[in-house]
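Narrative of activities, Objective 1.

The group set out to show that a structural description can be obtained from nothing but a protein's sequence at a throughput compatible with the screening campaign. Below is one input-output pair from the validation batch, recorded exactly as produced.
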Amino acid sequence: MNSIFRNLYFWFAVILLAITDIFFIGIFLGLFDFGFVVGPYRINHWLGWLGFLFIGFHVPIFVTLKRRYTQKIRLFLAIHVIGNLTAYLLITIHFASQISRPAEFYPDLGTGLALYIFLIILVVTGFLQRFNLLSKYRPNWRFLHRSLVLALFVIIIIHILHGLGIF
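Output recorded for this entry:
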């Protein structure tokens, strides 16, 4: 456990999580505004979609590559962790922008709230698993982390369909 605090990779991940928290709080308090329009949509939507696209394409590719090219697992894992934490930051900007909207324009939080809760649990379990924190429970984190990925993809599809007015 002590060696983890000397690991720059660990601190980079912690800093990314801290930046995510700063953006969440800043957006919620009105210090940052991601509501401006770029093209047909607000920037917070574009950022949320970019985060989703990374997760949506990277996770299946990661699962395939880590089994096929086991000698490169450290590189794949680094891309997985840092990439998904960056995607989490982008999705957090989207979520915080949505929940900080005025009451008359407040969104329906159903699927979005469920998605964000699943994403938080995925980030926590992935962080605990990657940095071997609470190693006594590691098999449980691994099971929970992998199981929630499928649920996350199902909810993402429902969320997109709901956003398009189809579902």
